[in-house]
Design a protein that fits this description.
The complex is a heterodimer.
Chain A lengths: L2 E4 L2 E4 L6 H10 L30 E6 L12 E2 L9 E4 L4 H14 L17 H9 L16 E3 L3 E3 L9 H9 L5 E4 L6 E4 L12 H5 L5 E3 L12 E6 L8 E7 L2 E7 L13 H6 L7 E5 L24 H11 L1
Parallel strand pairs in A: 1-5
Antiparallel strand pairs in A: 1-2, 3-4, 3-5, 6-7, 7-10, 8-9, 11-12, 11-14, 12-13
Helix pairs in contact in A: 2-3
Chain B lengths: L17 H5 L1 H13 L25 E3 L14 H5 L5 E7 L12 E9 L8 H5 L5 E3 L14 E2 L1 H4 L15 H7 L9
Chain lengths: ~325, ~190
């Protein structure tokens, strides 16, 4: 059981744990007070095997390799792919070198990413927006033409907007691991690579809608929610229904009594707690289909928390007949 | 207690002198003050024939701008509605269809855009929030209306006419005007 220290916080973790997972364990531990020391991630997804290692936004500095070999690692390492050693000391937010390098990573991720947040449906819950806001610079130094693609409809429910893609491979891994037939993958190499389905073949699977949830940017979006409303004007509610294909536990995004969108419940790290099927996601848009559990917890830093109240006001029941009887008994 | 002004007088109940009892000198001195105003500059202006000059930072009725080609700049991003402290702005977005490129600048546009002028406090936060330079406050006044519903201004009132442009250059800082001269930035194309 190695012991690792990240930004001064120590934790003992099982063998084979990565630095990123250890950092998340520290933040998740009950009683932890302090800033979020978990490195940001764009491509790593805890529920998808072999994900991570592409985007480099989770890089950290290992200032002490281990107890046996205390030399620091020569370069910054991707924390999602580096396992911890006993006595390892890691610097994330405390190292100016890491912050500087991460600013460079953000700049590279944004090189081809369009500045169309006012149009994009992902705005408000976009990981790249958060990453750019927290770690990026305020100006671009890139003068050349950004690459653009035509929008592709993947089936009746999903829209692929390749222009916004940052090549995180999450959707490819999700399609690979959730479904038994893989239709989608990465074409071409390097600068020219793009996500594509073979001859725009529709992804026809009951769980294809989860590709929307794993996409950290607005490259894969819900066609049934397209331009319906900005995310922060909707009310997120936890709800469930008995579904034969999936857990049926979802988050509803309502406006008034109308359900605009159904998504999986995303946890603190933006990852779905459980995969949901397409029937729940796209076809059950009537409020009577669902059992509402209550308002969803939204991080206070998020723009979605605007006008969002979570405290359930205790409902007061007035039983008039009972009260009248009590009064009559008193007399 | 120390008096707040040098014009305060202590009230005394002493008997008036003969000069004060005659009363006429006091009336005449009062009339002199009144008549002296006949020859002073008049502060009143004859509105609406005459109007005063507006301050450069006056914030009146909003305008939704079009770009140089006459396409609406607003893309219904909702940032003005978020920034609005009075929650006066509501909008509904729609997707631009092929062939409407000359009407709307971006692929998404505001099908409905309403400002409740009774709620609006004319703070100008919507202007600050707008990433598309679409909404500006102008030096126009909001007209009086007979019904409360008439104060909910829709796109028919807010969007400027293609041939009746509203000048908002006074609402832009020198830094912004300087930035807009650089046509190499995508924002200005």
């Amino acid at each position: 059981m190695p012991k690792v220290t990240i930004d001064g916080h120590s934790i003992v973790v099982p063998d084979g744990t990565t630095i990123l997972q250890a950092a998340r364990m520290i933040v998740d531990a009950p009683g932890y007070i302090g800033e979020n020391i978990a490195p940001p991630t764009m491509c790593y997804h805890s529920k998808l095997k072999t994900s991570g290692g592409y985007c480099r936004s989770c890089i950290v500095k290992v200032s002490k390799g281990s107890e046996k070999d205390p030399r620091p690692m020569p370069k910054l390492v991707a924390s999602c792919r580096t396992t911890v050693m006993d006595g390892m000391e890691v610097m994330n937010t405390t190292s100016p070198e890491v912050l500087e390098a991460r600013r460079g990573v953000v700049e590279f991720l944004l090189i081809n990413h369009p500045l169309d947040c006012p149009v994009c449906d992902q705005a408000g819950e976009c990981h790249l927006q958060d990453l750019g806001y927290e770690n990026g610079g305020s100006k671009t130094r890139y003068d050349f033409k950004r690459r653009t693609f035509a929008k592709i409809d993947i089936g009746p429910f999903i829209k692929l907007h390749m222009t916004r893609c940052i090549m995180c491979f999450r959707c490819v891994k999700a399609a690979d691991q959730l479904t038994n037939n893989r239709y989608q993958g990465m074409l071409f190499r390097g600068d020219a690579s793009e996500i594509s389905t073979y001859i725009e073949k529709a992804i026809d699977n009951d769980f294809s809608g989860n590709l929307i949830d794993v996409c950290p940017v607005g490259a894969l979006t819900d066609r049934t929610f397209r331009f319906k409303s900005r995310v922060w004007f909707t009310k997120p509610m936890d709800a469930h229904r008995s579904c034969t294909k999936c857990s049926g536990k979802v988050a509803l995004w309502e406006k008034g009594n109308e359900i605009l969108r159904v998504t999986a419940r995303k946890d603190k790290w933006g990852e779905p707690e459980s995969w949901i099927c397409n029937e729940c996601r796209f076809e059950k848009k009537n409020i009577n289909d669902w059992v509402i559990e209550g308002p969803r917890h939204i991080d206070p830093h998020s723009v979605i928390s605007l006008n969002h109240y979570e405290n359930v006001v205790a409902t007061m029941k007035l039983d008039v007949a009972k009260q009248q009887k009590q009064l009559a008994d008193k007399k | 207690m120390q008096p707040l002004t040098n014009r305060s007088k202590v009230v005394v109940n002493k008997e008036m002198s003969l000069y004060e009892k005659i009363y006429l000198p006091a009336i005449i001195s009062g009339m002199m003050i009144t008549m002296s105003h006949f020859f002073k500059k008049k502060p009143t202006i004859q509105y609406p024939e005459q109007t005063r000059e507006f301050s450069g930072v006056y914030r009146g009725q909003h305008v939704l701008k079009r770009d140089d080609n006459g396409a609406e700049r607003c893309t219904a991003c909702g940032l003005c509605a978020v920034a609005c402290p009075a929650e006066a702005i509501t909008m509904t977005a729609a997707e631009r269809k092929p062939g409407e490129e000359k009407l709307y600048r971006e692929e998404k546009y505001a099908a409905v855009y309403e400002i409740n002028m009774l709620r609006c406090i004319f703070c100008g936060d919507c202007e600050d929030a707008c990433p598309k330079e679409a909404i500006f406050l102008t030096d126009r006044k909001v007209n009086s209306e007979l019904k409360r519903n008439s104060f909910i201004y829709g796109k028919n009132i807010l969007v400027e006419g293609v041939d009746k442009r509203v000048d908002v250059s006074r609402r832009q800082t020198p830094a912004v005007l300087e930035f807009k001269k650089h046509k190499e930035f995508e924002h200005n194309r």
